[in-house]
Amino acid sequence: MSCGNAHETDCSEVLNHLYEYLDDEMSADACTKFKEHFDECHPCLEKYGLEVAVKKLVKRCCGSDDVPSDLRSKVMMRIELVRRGEAVPEQDALSAELPTTEAPSA
């Protein structure tokens, strides 16, 4: 996505690293660049606001659930594949992790 205007920091760079910014996983210099970008780019600011809202909703609804570390690793691996533009395996990584419930034998 690009708003069509020239910025010191390109829209695609901002959007590709938006979650790092949201999760406070960036250097102070990078955060400053992103803040400046949001000040001058309304489409990216809207996307940022939407992602903040989604993150708050997920935290409120799922914040107390523990996530198995192997599931987190698989999800993060898929996110990284998508970021790099690589093919993501068709198998749903989440379905492999869901516990199955079996009826007890009589």
TrEMBL record:
Origin species: Actinacidiphila yanglinensis
UniProt domain Putative zinc-finger: residue ranges: 11-44
InterPro entries for this protein: Anit_sigma_mycothiol_RsrA (IPR024020), Znf_put (IPR027383)
UniProt region (Disordered), positions on chain: 87-106
Record protein name field: Mycothiol system anti-sigma-R factor
Pfam family, one: zf-HC2
